[in-house]
Amino acid sequence: MSCRCCRRCIPSTICGADVSDLFAYSTTKYIKIRDARLGLLHYGLMFLIVVYILVYQLIGKLGYLKFNDAQNTVRLTLQEPTQGCNPNDTGCKDNFASLSQLPYCCAQNSSCKTNSDGSCSCDYRTSFKDYNCTWLSGTDASVIRESSIVVATFIHEYDQSLNTTCFNSYPSAANNCDDLWLIQEKASLFAADVEAFTMLIDHSVTSPKSGLATTSRQMQGMLFVGDNGNDGDVSKAIKDELCRSNPKAVTAQEGGSSTDHSPCYVPPNSADGLDYFSVGTLLQATGVTLEGESYPGSGHSARYEGLTINLLIDYSNSRDWHGLQPNISYLYKPSVVPQNSGTFKTTLLSPSSLNGQQMLKKDIHGVLFEVRPSGQLAVFDFTQLLLQLTTSLTLLALATVGVNILAQYVLRYRHYYSEALYDRTADFDNISFLESQSDNHLRQELEDRNLPTSGTRERMILRLMEYGYRPPRPTSTASSERCNLSSAREP
């Protein structure tokens, strides 16, 4: 009774459109279209999606792992060249090259001419000026900071004295102090054989989010000598020479073969489980030489001006197509800051008198090695795996939607596909009348229309509705009788 009342409240049409068509309910109905071309298109897309998600993303790109940035701490130490020993040990001998073998040094037995600025001009080195060279220990030649080290290549030394006249009376507008420190240049010196110095790198890596932590003694690393593609001929030749001169240079970090040109991977030297490289090796890996011009128009070499090198330590504990690795590995990736903006100088002051009025000032030009962490460490993560699987289900659903769109609007037989894909039911407005009829009456109606009479009561009603059955309209006589009956009942 309530459904009939509700139906009376709903208009049959809105703006000339059938209400049942406007507010028809759409639901999923599985249709099997017997067309191999359409099926192959659908299954082909699904196959590609499965290959992309399961093979490429999950297996190849390790989509089931969660990656977190690596962090590290570094200790850097510089050591002068020795005869294969620790300079702190008694009897350890240094192994510097002779000054006569270093083209940037003013050799006493050469034809060098001394200039007024303390430099000298030599026949064998016409591009830049030479200077006197000095022997320095690893401690004297280095300035160590947090995660960086300066390797001195050229030093300006000055004696400076405090101008005591500036403190005889308070300065005033008429009595200014023009020279607080009286400075006198003492020496300009190259550090001898600095390329032969060795730099020890002791580092540890942590990843707080994944809980991983280890030290360089427990890891294996390599020096990467890259080929950026935009290297000049000189830079490429320097890198190739490093790969060629090292018999252990290989083409890959793991499983590589021997090579004599860049890019290549070079194993570090080891002492007590710690890595060390010569300064010359690190310079070669970046494709620069201290004997090159610092920057266009400078008139000085990189040895005189200094330069800056970024040394990335790239950590990893996973490999594409191989998964998690039992140990963390790393790569040293040095790169030089463009020399026209990467020259480097630092200044050191040390008192030369007890009262602090005499100071020795050193302007140190050199190679600044900035060590930074890079890379990511991975751990298995179920949420990440679930995300990849959810993505695959979404793409599979999109494949079905895409094929449906092609079938309806693009392909040759789109009109036939559309008829097969969409099925419209009969108007359910008459279902209440049919439900009020007996089973025998329903069967009779089906027989009159030559329709099957089998099936449940609901199936028979749906069959009549699909045929287009409409209940008989009441005749005028029946309507009059109902009206008379209503009048008779009135008092």
TrEMBL record:
InterPro entries: P2X_receptor, SAP_dom
Name of the protein in question: SAP domain-containing protein
Region (Disordered): 469-491
UniProt similarity note: Belongs to the P2X receptor family.
Highest taxon listed in the record's lineage: Eukaryota
Domain SAP: 434-468
Residue ranges crossing the lipid bilayer per the database entry: 40-59, 385-407
UniProt feature, compositional bias: Polar residues: 475-491
Pfam families, A to Z: SAP
Compartments it resides in: Endomembrane system
Keywords from the UniProt entry: Ion channel, Ion transport, Ligand-gated ion channel, Membrane, Transmembrane, Transmembrane helix, Transport
